[in-house]
Design goal:
Blueprint (H helix, E strand, L loop, with lengths): L5 E7 L4 E7 L6 H11 L6 H8 L6 H6 L11 H13 L2 H15 L17 H4 L11 H9 L1 H8 L2 H14 L1
Antiparallel strand pairs: 1-2
């Protein structure tokens, strides 16, 4: 998702391609959205060249042969990836999915017309500054990691009054 629209990407293995469906309010956003899709799915990579190079390592040869073209997944948003990684390290996968669902439901922006049951987008760092996400049942260590990650960066971009609030939240959490 992005401001004013949604992006749905599906894999068409028989045709060896991705299908990208974009709903947007401003067509001028399309080039940046397609650039991001290319980055997330690593479409500029040459899987044959990468496979040939990785196969030079005896420890990787059989792995590359079993899964040719396997890529490390990207993410639409770096902050969301960081939060998911922090929470995923603290609790089980099922627990992380449930907790992230609560986080998105409580602090993510509602979107109209999402596909596959999508109703909210992941909250932006600024949205979490004054939040009480620890009340969602997040382990304290994860809350400190999440709270400490966005606040200093986000606070610098906020108006003066909000910067002071962000600093006070950071201090209270430590």
């Amino acid at each position: 998702t992005f401001a004013g629209g949604t992006v749905a990407v599906s894999h068409e293995p028989v045709r060896r391609r991705l299908r990208v469906a974009v709903r947007l309010g401003d067509v001028a956003q399309l080039p940046s959205i397609l650039t991001r899709v290319r980055r997330v799915f690593d479409l500029g990579a040459d899987p044959d060249a990468i496979g040939a190079h990785l196969s030079l390592d005896p420890a990787l040869t059989s792995l590359v042969a079993r899964r040719p073209g396997l890529r490390v997944p990207g993410g639409w948003d770096g902050f969301e990836m960081a939060v998911r990684a922090v929470i995923g390290q603290q609790i089980t996968i099922a627990g992380a999915r449930q907790l992230l669902g609560k986080l998105v439901g409580a602090y993510g922006a509602f979107i109209d017309g999402g596909t596959d049951g999508l109703t909210h987008v992941f909250p932006a760092p600024a949205r979490l500054i004054d939040s009480e996400i620890a009340l969602l049942g997040m382990p304290l260590a994860a809350w400190w990691s999440v709270a400490g990650f966005p606040l200093p960066r986000v606070a610098a971009a906020l108006p003066r009054r909000r910067r002071v609030q962000a600093r006070s939240v950071t201090i209270r959490m430590r």
